[in-house]
Amino acid sequence: MEEVSTDIPSRLRFLWITYKPAIILGTVSIILILLSITILIKSVQTTTPITFSTEGEASVAGAMRGSEVAVDVAGGVLHPGVYRLPSGSRVEDAIRAAGGLSAEADSDRLAKLVNRAAKLSDGAKLYIPKVGDTVTGSRPVNDGSSSTGGFETSSSVATGSLPVSINAASQSELEALSGVGPATARKIIDGRPYRGLEELVTKKAMGQSLFGKLKDQLTL
What we know:
This is Soluble ligand binding domain-containing protein. Keywords: Membrane, Transmembrane, Transmembrane helix. The chain is α/β, with parallel strands linked by helices. It has a single domain (59-219), classed as Photosystem II 12 kDa extrinsic protein (DNA polymerase, domain 1). It is 44% helix and 12% strand. It is built from eight helices and seven strands; from the N terminus they run ααββααββββααααβ. The chain has helices spanning 2-46, 55-66, 91-97, 107-113, 171-175, 182-190, 199-202, 208-214, and strands spanning 68-75, 81-86, 124-128, 139-140, 151-152, 164-165, 218-219. The strands form three sheets. It has a three-stranded mixed sheet. A two-stranded antiparallel sheet has the order 4-5. The protein has a two-stranded parallel sheet with strand order 6-7. β1 (68-75) and β2 form a beta hairpin. The protein is rod-shaped, with a radius of gyration of 40 Å. The termini are far apart.
């Protein structure tokens, strides 16, 4: 037994001396393989997975929304409601989107007050006058000022009792406001765009007194 036990170390030394290069090379190879596997596993765990999310679709949808305007169409149309139209659309496009004019539409007042070629702004309210409409806050005209069917009223891309858009109304629509003549209407148009109603005064489109009388009839 002692011979066997003493013989083992000598055999190991013999093997080490004989196969030393192969043993070293094999050991190094195993270590490198293990390191490579470890690095590969870690890289797989930390790599951001490639996912096909809806972010791209959301950004495209956002861009599309940015190229649209939402318009509330009411009054003498077949299908009143809120419509989304391409940016740059005209009043005529909104009327068509709402199904066209209804039998109740007042064609005479429409022709006088509504500029069907005017561009629509986002969030605009478009009211098509109807036959027999009574305008809130209007009064009979007896001073030669602009009138619609015998009543003084305000109008923009909308008309009737609705506020006038200082960013969208035409020259004639602005002149329909009490106290606004051709010169003032021109100043209002030249001062566009407006981010607040008060800019009518700061941009010297009208005086404070006139603004105080009209501010409840105006909108952006």
